[in-house]
Automatic annotation (TrEMBL):
Protein's name in the database: Branched-chain amino acid transport system ATP-binding protein
Family statement: Belongs to the ABC transporter superfamily.
UniProt keyword terms in alphabetical order: Amino-acid transport, ATP-binding, Nucleotide-binding, Transport
GO MF terms held by the record: ATP binding; ATP hydrolysis activity; branched-chain amino acid transmembrane transporter activity
GO biological process assignments: L-amino acid transport
Family annotation (PROSITE patterns): ABC_TRANSPORTER_1, ABC_TRANSPORTER_2
Residues in ABC transporter domain copies: 9-241
Taxonomic source organism: Actinomadura namibiensis
Entry-linked InterPro entries: AAA+_ATPase, ABC_transporter-like_ATP-bd, ABC_transporter-like_CS, BCAA_Transport_ATP-bd_LivF, P-loop_NTPase
Length: 243
C-alpha cells in the first residue's frame, strides 16, 4: 500500500466504450505494487478495452489511479510518462525498423542517454535472442521474437505498470511458456506491477497472484489465482487444456 493507504493501481466504477458502443460497465479492481494480475474472460468481454482504458487510449468515466495519481482523462503520452507501458495485442512493433531502433523508440520519454544504453543491456539480458538480432529488421523476426521485442520496448520506458494484451497470441506453446517465464522474472527482479490479459488461463494463473474474470464488461469473479483456478465455472470455461 502507498502513503494514501490505497492499492498501487486502483480502478473504480470504470465505464468505457467506442462512440455509442458501451463496453465496460462499472469495472472495479485493485492491484498491489509488484503484483501480477491476470484478466480472463471470453471473446468480446472487454479485456482489451480495459487495458486501453487504463493507458488513456479510450475515453473513460470513473476513476483510475496509479499510486494515488489520477490517470483517467490523461492522454496516452501523459499516462506513459507516469510509468505505464502498454504492449498491445498484435504487438505494435515497427516492422521496417531494426530491433535496436524499436527498443530506442520505447525510451522516447527519456533524456538520460547513458541509462538508456544500460537499459538496452538490461533488455538483452532478459531476451538474449534480441541481442543476436539487434540490427535485423523487426519484420523479419519470428512471432515469438516480435513479442519479446514488444515487451522489451515497453521495458525501455522503465515502467511501474506493465499492461500486456494477449502475449501468447499466435505463438507456439513452448515459446509462450518461455515468454511467461521471462515476464515472471521481470516482475520478480524489478517489482514491476503487471496486468496481463490472456486467453491461456493456465499460464496466466501460473504467474499471477490474483485474477479477475471479465464478462460482458463487468467483473464476474475476483480472487487469488489459486481461488480462481479452483472455481468450477472457471475450470469449465477457461481451463480446458494446458500447454
Ligand atoms: N474500435 C472499436 N470500435 C467499436 N467497437 C469496438 C472497438 N474495439 C472493440 N469493440 C467492441 O468492444 C467489445 C469488446 O471488445 P474487446 O476487444 O475489448 O474484447 P476482448 O475481451 O479483448 O475480446 P478478445 O478476446 O476477442 O480480444 C466487442 O464487442 C468489440 O466488438
Amino acid at each position: 500500500m502507498n502513503a494514501k493507504d490505497e492499492a498501487f493501481l486502483k480502478v473504480e466504477d470504470l465505464h468505457a466504450g467506442y462512440g455509442d458502443v458501451r463496453v465496460l460497465h462499472g469495472v472495479g479492481l485493485s492491484v498491489g505494487q509488484g503484483e501480477i494480475c491476470a484478466i480472463l474472460g471470453p471473446n468480446g468481454a472487454g479485456k482489451t478495452t480495459l487495458l486501453r482504458a487504463l493507458c488513456g487510449m479510450v475515453r473513460v468515466r470513473g476513476a483510475v489511479r496509479l499510486d494515488g495519481v489520477p490517470l483517467s482523462g490523461r492522454s496516452p503520452d501523459a499516462v506513459a510518462r507516469l510509468g505505464v507501458a502498454h504492449v498491445p495485442e498484435g504487438r505494435g512493433t515497427f516492422m521496417p525498423l531494426t530491433v535496436e531502433e524499436n527498443l530506442r523508440v520505447g525510451a522516447y520519454t527519456r533524456r538520460d542517454r547513458a541509462a538508456v544504453r544500460d537499459d538496452l543491456e538490461r533488455v538483452y539480458g532478459y531476451f538474449p535472442a534480441l541481442r543476436k538480432r539487434l540490427r535485423q529488421q523487426a519484420g523479419s523476426l519470428s512471432g515469438g521474437e516480435q513479442q519479446m521485442l514488444a515487451i522489451g520496448r515497453a521495458l525501455m520506458l522503465r515502467p511501474r505498470l506493465l499492461l500486456l494484451d494477449e502475449p501468447s497470441l499466435g505463438l507456439a506453446p513452448m515459446v509462450t511458456r518461455e515468454l511467461f517465464g521471462i515476464v515472471a522474472s521481470i516482475n520478480r527482479e524489478e517489482r514491476t506491477t503487471v496486468v496481463v490479459v490472456e486467453q491461456n488461463a493456465h499460464l496466466a494463473l501460473d504467474v499471477a497472484g490474483q485474477a479477475h474474470v471479465l464478462e460482458t464488461g463487468r467483473i464476474a469473479l475476483s480472487g487469488s489465482a489459486a481461488d480462481i483456478r479452483a472455481d468450477e465455472q472457471v475450470a469449465q470455461s477457461y481451463l480446458g487444456y494446458r500447454i
